[in-house]
Amino acid sequence: MIDQFFATKLATSQTFDAKGNRLVVTRLKTQPLTISQIKTLAKDGYWAVQVKFPKTAKNFWRREIRLDQESTLKLGGQINCQDILKPGDLLKATGLSKGRGFSGAMKRHGFHGGPATHGQSDRPRSPGSIGMRTTPGRVWKGKKMAGHYGMAAKAIRNLKVINFAEATNILTISGTVPGARNSLIKLTKNA
Q1: What is the spatial distance between Cα 58 and Cα 61, in angstroms, rounded to a whole number?
Q2: Predicted TM-score of the model (pTM)
Q3: Spatial separation of the C-alpha atoms in residues 51 and 22, rounded to whole Å
Q4: How far is Cα 76 from Cα 113, in angstroms, rounded to an integer?
Q5: How far apart are CA 153 and CA 150, in angstroms?
Q6: First to last CA, the chain
Q7: If you compute the radius of gyration of the chain from its CA atoms, what whole number of angstroms results?
Q8: Is the torsion defined by CA of 20, 26, 30, 33 positive or negative?
Q9: What does the pLDDT profile of the chain (191 residues) look like in tens digits?
């Protein structure tokens, strides 16, 4: 049974429920997934289907969906969003967070910076000391320092499917989803 689907992020917006409460929602553009390869236990050591779907007019995304058992899916067949996700379902959304490039310790880790006065004039955003003296004579591994920030896989759990518009293929889910606009989002249905 397939419990995953792929979509592209359109935008974060808001909507209202039946009681008039405001909900933060994310709208995702879905497209039918075309089965481009079927992997079997005998040939590949596991069951899976490889799906492809348009990224641009000429390029495709290709992703693999693992299966628990052999499936009746056929090569060239299509998987639609409404076959997997229904309104009210809970799911996990996984995507790449927005890339922020090389960032300092204040932005990347939330350091507070040094004092603004008492003699300090040129290092207000520096991280401060990064270690001890001769012992250990090095910087500990994992020390929080400046570096590349963002573009990391992030998952948000327990998001609820609000609705699916079949005419426009737009899926609306509660909450926010990691990633920039038009980025790929993997949706996994909660068991």
Answers
A1: 11
A2: 0.83
A3: 36
A4: 57
A5: 9
A6: 11
A7: 23
A8: negative
A9: 788 999 999 999 999 989 999 999 999 999 999 999 999 999 999 999 999 988 888 888 899 999 888 878 888 889 888 888 899 999 999 999 999 999 999 999 999 988 888 888 888 899 988 999 899 999 999 999 999 999 999 999 999 999 999 899 999 999 999 999 999 999 999 86
- Indicate the DSSP class of residue 69: S
The strand pair at 22-30 and 170-174 is best described as antiparallel
Residue type, 107: K
SS (H, E, C) 116-179: CCCCCCCCCCCCCCCCCECCECCCCCCCCCCEEECCCEEEEEEEEEEEEECCCCEEEEECCCCC
- Alpha-carbon distance 113 to 150, whole Å? 21
Q: Are 169 and 82 in contact (CB under 8 A)?
A: no
Q: In whole angstroms, give the CA distance from residue 112 to residue 115.
A: 9
Structure token digits, residue 35? 């089965």
Task: Look up tokens 């249905």; give the residue.
Answer: 189
